[in-house]
Amino acid sequence: MDFARSLALVAPETLLSVSGLILLLVAAWAGDKASRAISIAAVAVLTACAIIAAPALWGGAMGPQTEAFGGQFRADAFAAYGKLLIYASAGVTLMVAPAFFDRVKAMRAEFPLLIMFASIGMGMMVSAADLLTLYIGLELTSLASYVLASFLRVDERSAEAGLKYFVLGSLASGILLFGMSLLYGFTGSTSFAAIHDAMTGEMATGALFGVIFVLAGLAFKISAAPFHMWTPDVYEGAPTPVTTFFSTAPKVAALGLMMRVTLEAFGNQVFAWQQVVIFASLLSIVIGALGAIGQNNIKRLMAYSSINNVGFILIGLATATQAGASAMLVYLAIYVAMSVAGFVVILLLRDENGDAVEAISDLAGLSKTRPWLALSLAMVMFSLAGIPPLFGFWGKFVVFQAAVQADLIILAAIGIAASVIGAFYYLKVVKVMYFDEAIDKVKGAGELSQTVILVLALLVNSPLGYLLTKCLDTLAGNAAAALFFAY
Questions:
Q1: How far apart are CA 135 and CA 217, in angstroms?
Q2: Of the four listed, 167, 178, 284, 478, which is most buried by Cβ atoms within 10 Å?
Q3: DSSP notation for 263-299
Q4: Which residues contact 386 (CB under 8 A, 6 or more apart)?
Q5: 3-class state of residue 405 by DSSP
């Protein structure tokens, strides 16, 4: 009976696994000519998985009935929230990718399969309730990501991005695994619940080092400073649809996993990890803002923007409160919409030969030659900067509000000041598009799927996005409540 219930709780992962294996056989038999059909089938499977996972979120599922396989896996409202964002991000990537790869004759049937297998790993990450589940999900995601980063074999930058990601990712996995071994040695268990119960009173030095090493390994996965060094190179070198994927789904999964580990497993030792999170948050905000100022490549600028936004999201985690966790999840959903809009605009920036236009200087006068694209990119920049009335402002507002409520007023004040300073590099892009002399380099047009996704993402980022605040707050509140329920 328990085994049957466990199977029901892992239904999204099972469906993705079985479908992925079937589509892998189709790819082997039909070859690359079936890549579009496989992509469509993968989107359909991801949609079905989202439908399966959604009821747990709407119902606010929590408690022992959400645990599977002896407590190693948890299919609660928090996991459902993360999975919906992950599946949506993966589906968007599969819809915008074919037009990009077909243009360079590099679309292969393996691409949607790698996205599917990465989604399985990410689903396990947000559902992890044990160090073993955590590591299996993380490595499954990482292995698929390394291949995706180097997917465009005709581009040397892509191969370089994949190699850098692999080497640094392996180092981070080693650091994480060492931290996990220390935690197991000092607590006697790999279960988050058992680690939570064992970490009471004065903390042993070895266990503290375990906590720090685990957080360092996870900080790499969310590209938080000072473990951000791979992000600009990988974002620039990877194919743009892959960069779209990296900036959304794996970030949701890794942040969700970090919330599980800190608030569940290390929940009795808040002071031990809170300082590390505050340090990473402030450093990410500063490095993200300063690093972006000198960039002339739009994808590298978005990479530093990602580092900067992760810093703001971590302010919510630093509060160690349910309100802070809920604010993090709200910000995360808004950030996914902003990233999707930003990278779809970048996909549409093409010259007359169909080659990517990535240099910010090449966008000079874009408002005069392609006003629709210029307006879209300007909206993304203003939303990422947190300038009202665009919806990106709401994400920063709820995080700062949670920090103030948790008496982290200095942290909130520094975050607000850095947000104002960081707006400079976003405004630089807008200035180039609207006030520089037009050079008319952007000529290309995108597919209907790209345009539709861009319009939807921009609607979420627009002031109309505030219509979603009540629904978003309710869902994020359900997810955060499930995270805090057992502890």
A1: 11
A2: 284
A3: IIITTT-HHHHHHHHHHHHHHHHHHHHHHHHT--BHH
A4: 392, 393, 395, 396, 397, 419, 423
A5: helix
The SS3 of residue 120 is helix
Q: For 444-475, give one letter per residue: b (16+ CB within 10 A) or e.
A: bebbebbeebbeebbbbbeeebeebeeebbeb
Q: Which amino acid would we find at residue 66? A: T
What's the rounded Cα separation, in Å, for the pair 154 and 431? 34
Which one-letter amino acid corresponds to residue 65?
A: Q
Angle separating helix axes 298-318 and 270-293, nearest 10 degrees: 160
Q: How many CB atoms within 10 Å of residue 28?
A: 10
Report d(CA 202, CA 180) in Å as an integer.
Answer: 19
The helix (run of H) or strand (run of E) holding residue 356 is none
Task: Identify whether the C-beta of residue 119 lies closer than 8 Å to the C-beta of residue 249.
Answer: yes
pTM of the model: 0.95
Q: CA 241 → CA 115, 254, 299, 397, distances in Å? A: 11, 19, 11, 30
Say how many C-beta atoms besides its own lie within 10 A of residue 274's C-beta. 17
pLDDT value for 440: 78
C-alpha to C-alpha distance for 448 and 423, rounded to whole angstroms: 32
Which residue ranges in the chain fall short of pLDDT 70? 1, 444, 486-487
C-alpha span between 317 and 27 (Å, rounded):
42
Residue 30 exposed, middle or buried by CB count within 10 Å (0-12, 13-18, 19+): middle
Instruction: Read off the tokens for 60.
Output: 């606010």
**pLDDT number for residue 487:** 59
For 107, 246, 390, 409, the CA distances from 40, given in Å and listed in that order, are 14, 20, 32, 48
Query: For residue 434, how many other CB atoms are within 10 A of its CB?
Result: 17
CB proximity list for 113: less than 8 A, separation 6 or greater: 20, 23, 24, 27, 38, 42
Q: What per-residue confidence (pLDDT) applies to 268?
A: 83
Q: Smallest Cα–Cα separation from 127: which of 86, 73, 88?
A: 73
Q: Which two tokens stand for residue 231?
A: 């992000």
Q: Is the peptide bond before 389 cis (omega within 30 degrees of 0)?
A: yes
Q: Which two tokens stand for residue 370?
A: 């392609």
The amino acid at 75 = A
Task: State the DSSP H helix or E strand holding residue 74, giving kind and residue range, or none if neither.
Answer: strand 73-74
Say if residues 324 and 406 touch (Cβ distance below 8 Å): yes
Q: Report whether 221 contacts 250 (CB < 8 A).
A: yes
